[in-house]
Amino acid sequence: MVVKKTLPNAFARTNLTELIEALGRPLVICGFMTHMCVSSTARAALDLGWETSIVSDATATRPLRSALSGHVVDAATMHDAALSALADRFSAVAPTSAFLDTPEQCEVA
Fold it and tell me: Would residue 106 show up in a list of annotated catalytic residues for this protein?
């Protein structure tokens, strides 16, 4: 299935909720950009009552200019910060190997 989206939150103006409900499976998020689309979708999923897991090495982002200092924040730092914020409340975060080896460990607690 392919869900075409036009906004960072993959639930906005799409049929993603209906597709997930029909499948009855956990929601695992991968994609680009960690700080925007991945984050928006994981946060919206929580608001909708969905538990999510994010595959840390199947997500990525780009460098951004700091709104405070004007310095460029490198992509690895942005990625780490975004995943850290999401892991604090919104999603379980784990690498691909965890999903392949022991997927039950990737469930949101």
Answer: no
Catalytic residue among 16, 37, 82, 98: 37
- For residues 13-49, one letter each, b for 16 or more C-beta atoms within 10 angstroms of the residue's C-beta and e for the rest, the string is eeebeeebeeeeeebbbebebbbbbbbbbbbbbeeee
pTM score, two decimals?
Answer: 0.88
H-helix segments, 1-109: 16-23, 39-47, 75-89, 96-101
Task: Read off the pLDDT of residues 72-87 as tens digits, 9 standing for 90 and up.
Answer: 999 999 999 999 999 9
Q: How far is CA 42 from CA 34, 70, 72, in A?
A: 10, 28, 25
